[in-house]
TrEMBL record:
<keyword id="KW-0762">Sugar transport</keyword>
<keyword id="KW-0812">Transmembrane</keyword>
<keyword id="KW-1003">Cell membrane</keyword>
<feature type="transmembrane region" description="Helical">
    <location>
        <begin position="429"/>
        <end position="449"/>
    </location>
</feature>
<feature type="transmembrane region" description="Helical">
    <location>
        <begin position="404"/>
        <end position="423"/>
    </location>
</feature>
<feature type="transmembrane region" description="Helical">
    <location>
        <begin position="339"/>
        <end position="359"/>
    </location>
</feature>
<feature type="transmembrane region" description="Helical">
    <location>
        <begin position="365"/>
        <end position="383"/>
    </location>
</feature>
<dbReference type="InterPro" id="IPR020846">
    <property type="entry name" value="MFS_dom"/>
</dbReference>
<keyword id="KW-0813">Transport</keyword>
<keyword id="KW-1133">Transmembrane helix</keyword>
<feature type="transmembrane region" description="Helical">
    <location>
        <begin position="177"/>
        <end position="195"/>
    </location>
</feature>
<dbReference type="InterPro" id="IPR011701">
    <property type="entry name" value="MFS"/>
</dbReference>
<dbReference type="InterPro" id="IPR036259">
    <property type="entry name" value="MFS_trans_sf"/>
</dbReference>
<dbReference type="GO" id="GO:0005886">
    <property type="term" value="C:plasma membrane"/>
</dbReference>
<keyword id="KW-0472">Membrane</keyword>
<protein>
    <submittedName>
        <fullName>Putative sugar transporter</fullName>
    </submittedName>
</protein>
<feature type="transmembrane region" description="Helical">
    <location>
        <begin position="63"/>
        <end position="85"/>
    </location>
</feature>
Length: 456
């Protein structure tokens, strides 16, 4: 087989993998960031959570804990997902993830109360948890242009992040939230069907590197063809041993960094739609005011209203597409630690400035929201690539499992923390706490930058 044919095969393999992870990543975040839209609805629709022996009032704190159950499993399940993907491969877990998410939103559509809603969110979190270790392992071991793969992967995630809330908010203008949840289950079913048809080599990039004389992969050790690519861990003792190996080096700092990233991310996104409406004061607009006079003349007083804050929220998340793209491309051009320091430093400043700037008017509000969306997602390719640089290829699934245990497992506490602060204090206190999370991540990035030797 000639060189040109090999190159063509590699390109086709890259394209097949990137297409699959873009589809699945978009689906995961479509559902994840649609949930806060429903939270804004549940705050107004339900007065209490009936637990049988007791009844809990519906507040930002109680809903923060309730949604935190699902979001925590989104992260906690990443570790067993990472272990499993090193054993069985990525494709099977991605298909299972898509089917599980579809089932969770069917359950959400059938929910008669908030207890069943909480159960549906738990099912969603468990199903979605396996995606990131599976998808990111697949990119890191199968795609040769890894930084570009991370960039397109991130773009697809942000398209889901923006498109999901936008479509959800649009459908909620005209339909009950139960029906909307049922409709949202359909795309994951279609995506699962398409994923089963994907065909690629999961270890193509590792095999190509090993074929090039066992070069250093940037993870701190020479693979030399002896790395356990695709082997993973096969026992509890090996899990403990390999985990100690991971955390003995720079990965421990990376893990701490992604925990603070997760706390910031979940803390700012869970109640942001409600904050934009109630704190900053964006008023709903009757849909009839947006229609031509001929169509609006017959509108009744009960006509639907446009909750502008939901669409501002969706727009903020959509801006993250550009942040993901820029961050992904820069990981191939600059040291990832520098990108981490710059990105989280910007997020700290934005958190402090958000409310004062947003109160100045519509233009400043949209500008600060755009900056938040850009940097919130620009940092993700940097820490994803940093994980790959501090871990061996054969344990990449395990390392990404730990990573998303930190991002979405520990990070899920960000929603509960945000709900508690909004209940006992105010939004100003919340944004100062968020600034503290970003500042801590910045300092950890600086520490990594100083410890890692400059490449020759």
């Amino acid at each position: 087989m000639g060189v040109g044919t090999v190159a063509g095969d590699v390109n086709r393999n890259d394209r097949s993998i990137v297409a699959l992870v873009m589809l699945a990543h978009g689906m995961v975040h479509t559902y994840e960031l649609s949930i806060p839209i429903f939270v804004a609805i549940w705050l107004g629709e339900f007065a209490s959570i009936d637990l049988g022996l007791a009844s809990v009032p519906v507040t930002t704190a109680s809903l923060g804990v309730m949604t935190g159950l699902g979001f925590s499993l989104f992260g906690l399940g990443a570790l067993p997902g990472g272990i499993l993907v090193d054993r069985v491969g990525s494709k099977r877990l991605i298909v299972a993830c898509l089917l599980g998410m579809a089932g969770s939103f069917v359950l959400l559509a059938l929910s008669p109360n908030l207890v069943v809603v909480a159960l549906a969110l738990v099912v969603w979190g468990a199903a979605a948890s396996v995606y990131h270790p599976a998808g990111l392992r697949l990119i890191s071991t199968g795609v040769e242009e890894r930084g570009t793969g991370f960039a397109y992967h991130g773009i697809a995630g942000n398209l889901g992040i923006g498109f999901g809330p936008f479509v959800t908010a649009l459908l909620l203008l005209f339909f009950d939230w139960h029906l909307v949840a049922g409709v949202l289950a359909l795309p994951a079913l279609v995506a699962a069907a398409l994923a089963t048809r994907a065909n690629f080599e999961e270890q193509a990039a590792v095999a190509a590197a090993d074929g090039g004389a066992g070069t250093d992969t940037g993870d701190g050790g020479d693979t030399g063809g002896d790395d356990k690519a695709g082997a993973g861990v096969s026992s509890l003792a090996e899990l403990v041993s390999q985990s100690k190996h991971l955390f003995a080096g720079g990965f421990a700092l990376v893990f701490a960094l992604v925990m603070f990233s997760g706390l910031y991310y979940r803390g700012v996104t869970t109640f942001l739609p409600d904050l934009l409406g109630s704190v900053i004061g964006i008023e709903p607009i009757p849909v009839s005011e947006l229609l031509p006079a001929a169509l609006a003349s017959g509108s009744a007083g009960g006509a639907p209203t446009l909750d502008v804050e939901l669409f501002v929220y969706a727009g903020l998340l959509t801006v993250g597409v550009f942040g993901q793209y820029v961050g992904g491309k820069l990981t191939d051009r600059i040291r990832t630690e520098r990108g981490i320091v710059a990105g989280f430093g910007a997020l700290a400043v934005i958190a402090v400035a958000f409310l004062p700037v947003a109160s100045l008017g519509v233009g400043p509000l949209l500008a600060i929201c755009a900056l938040l969306g850009f940097f919130l997602f620009m940092v993700q390719p940097f820490y994803q690539a940093t994980v790959a640089e501090y871990t061996p290829a054969g344990l990449r699934g395990l390392s990404y499992g730990f990573t998303y245990l930190g991002v979405f497992g520990v990070g899920a506490l960000g929603g509960a923390i945000a709900g508690y602060i909004l209940t006992v204090a105010d939004s100003t206190a919340l944004f100062f706490v968020l600034a503290g999370f970003a500042a801590a991540a910045t300092l950890l990035g600086v520490t990594l930058l100083r410890r890692r030797p400059t490449p020759a």
